[in-house]
Amino acid sequence: MASAMLSLASASPSASLSLQENLKISWKRGTSSRINFLGSDFSKTKSFTRTSMTVAVKVSRFKDITMAPPDPILGVSEAFKADTHEMKLNLGVGAYRTEDLQPYVLNVVKKAENLMLERGENKEYLPIEGLAAFNKVTAELMFGADNAVIQQQRVATVQGLSGTGSLRLAAALMERYFPGARVLISSPTWGNHKNIFNDARVPWSEYRYYDPKTVGLDFDGMISDIKAAPDGSFVLLHGCAHNPTGIDPTPEQWEKIADVIQERNHIPFFDVAYQGFASGSLDEDASSVRLFAARGMELLVAQSYSKNLGLYAERIGAINVVCASSDAAARVKSQLKRLARPMYSNPPIHGARIVSNVVGNPELFNEWKEEMEMMAGRIKSVRQKLYDSLCAKDKSGKDWSFILKQIGMFSFTGLNITQSENMTNKWHVYMTKDGRISLAGLSSAKCEYLADAIIDSYHNVK
Amino acid sequence: MSASSDHANSVFATVVQAPEDPILGVTVAYNKDPSPDKLNLGVGAYRTEEGKPLVLNVVRKAEQLLVNDPSRVKEYLPITGLADFNKLSAKLIFGADSLAIQENRVTTVQCLSGTGALRVGAEFLARHYHERTIYIPQPTWGNHPKVFTSAGLSVKTYRYYSPNTRGLDFQGLLEDLGSAPAGAIVLLHACAHNPTGVDPTSDQWEQIRQLMRSKGLLPFFDSAYQGFASGSLDADAASVRMFVADGGECLAAQSYAKNMGLYGERVGALSIVCKTAEVASRVESQLKLVIRPMYSNPPIHGASIVATVLKDRDLYNEWTVELKAMADRIISMRKQLFDALQARGTPGDWSHILKQIGMFTFTGLNANQVAFMTKEYHIYMTSDGRISMAGLSSRTVPNLTEAIHAAVSSVA
After folding, report:
1. Which residues does chain A have within 8 Å of residue B290's beta carbon, measured at their own beta carbons?
2. Which of A244, B88, B237, B290 has the CA that lies 20 to 30 A from A369?
3. Which residues on chain B are in Cβ contact (under 8 Å) with A199?
4. How far apart are CA A221 and CA B100, in angstroms?
5. Distance from CA of A5 to the nearest CA of B (A)
6. Averages of pLDDT over each 10 residues, chain B, 412 residues
7. Sheet of B218-223: strands edge to edge?
8. Best residue in B74, B148, B203, B282 for a mutation probing chain A (most A CBs within 10 Å)
9. How far apart are CA A430 and CA A49, in angstroms?
């Protein structure tokens, strides 16, 4: 074949130019202009091969690829790192910082890792569904060990790559087994939710959530939009500490949300990334999920240990699917495995072992609860300090109490894009453009500076 | 219990039980078997002479350093992963003196072992490359077609293994790649082809390269056994480096599961070699858009271990010694099995056991014979007749020999 091509070499420079143009056209996505190797374009191919038989294409196949914009959340940290200003403050990504603004590795995590090192465990592949010991403790942590759903083996639990990976597995399951079903997501929601459903090809629409007028929950809008969605839609709910707003439904509101979901035969899908971080109590923060489970509803829950165990980079989480029967749970689990295998084969062991060692060991578990309370406590105290600073410095009479009412790591300041940009450009305060600040990245020492920045941006920038 | 918990009302009523994965399912079945003589030759995971999993000394050392370092934190890695790890991985596969690296034409992103690298690469190509067909060798690793179709590529095969010769069907390969549409993606096993253990010679690689470049076929290398095939990291990267040396573009998926024994840590990398640094930078930005909605950023532990080993001269050298020892043990198992079959007088030509390269032997046993061996001798392997030599030891060779002998003699 190769020698045949060589012997047919011929043609003019203009022919080889049109080959390049041919290639250019066929690079554009969606078009199927093919270079017909054995057809009329053969002569053009040959002139190309004559000049570059043993050398590859002269032009990149990827030359028309555009530069993608930086991630709106993770890109903030990159920009922060590049800034040399001494007062710079990173309130972008939700990663917990100590009062000294240092990253924090929990003591229980260090203890668990040392135990693991001493034991000298092997590094064999986990099963596709992940570490069995981890799957057991993570479901128990979410639902309570004595919960009916666990006792009756109705939960399919599969270890996932933190919250993102668990959401993605669930989305893949939705796409395959609920074709055409859509997922309702809150307006606003974590920026990556849309990307996950887009890439998984699950259609989504929004339900009203944040009311800028009250800086609170648009409850009627939320109920109305959930009610109006097609029967059998998935409804993505933040289990606690809503990201980015920090606004959570009250227990009474959760009951009504469950009512309308049941009425419409929707499927609740909880994203639980902050269990323990909202109130400081692991059980209290699980109450919305448990409320739904107690009604006998089938539901999905994605969990993450990035924040509450500080295991960000270890990528440890789980997808739980509560089913009507243990048989359904077994089948669902088998299909989740089938989706994970062509994505990464089996999940990473290190984070899973840490979690199972901490949660599975009563002493470490109790110590964890204390560290959890400490972290949540620090955030509550900077909320208070920020609020106090704002009230002291701002003479306009604006009500800043939303800062105290919001729950979890984040505060939705209500600042718009231009105002948020002012925070960064003038004050070197890094945050996401939706006006979200991560209080986990704030120290008491910097509360006053931040208050100045917020007041300036709010009043002096439109 | 309320009505909504009634089985009939489950929204998952139509979800059927999926079968076990054909490769990983072998271990599941093995674990269930109570027989004391059972032998797992299914998944390609290295075992010592004592039949135990092995954690390399350099890995233990690296882990000690990491866990005991008080300055280490667990902050999110960038979407593209650990920067040091990426640079070192690129050097490992392309060569420390690679021109493509020096010219910044390579983008490398940390991925979830080989599977993750293949998936991210495939998703990228499905979105940004004009040809959406990938040609995979016949046979290939069982998970390859699933990875590519999940990513949105369509899969075709090219002839590779010749059952008659138990070697490479080189003519068939050239014909099939020759008739592929120009620009099509071609999956190549960098070395130690899985499952056959049959690799092209370097002359054959050169012919493949010329053919592919003349048709603008895009090479996508899967390198899961660098160092394991011959015992030499450089020799095992020769095929990849041959393609990169001609200035052309290619993709390369790397795994550290086997060669650093980091199986469960899920450490790997995807490199895309581009024509220019500018293109490489844009390609990298698009890879991030694939990764972020999949798992946001990769796990830190395994990549840190690899980076620690690769950047330290002593640890690196120690690694190459341990790697060679593993490769040598496998080669000696090949010899032992071959000799045992010869001594037993088992019918057939078993020289392919010696000729095949890497962790696996494609025995030539058929599915019935395999089932017989599992049932009667508790020997677990994939139904295509592939056995993992890494799972054999001097102690277990006699049992395997008996099983093969019985299977070949009594099962059609």
Report:
1. 199
2. A244
3. 290, 293-294
4. 56
5. 9
6. 52 88 87 94 91 95 94 95 98 97 98 98 96 97 97 98 94 98 97 96 98 97 95 97 96 98 98 96 96 97 98 98 96 97 96 94 95 96 94 95 96 87
7. B106-112, B267-273, B250-255, B218-223, B185-189, B133-138, B154-159
8. B74
9. 53
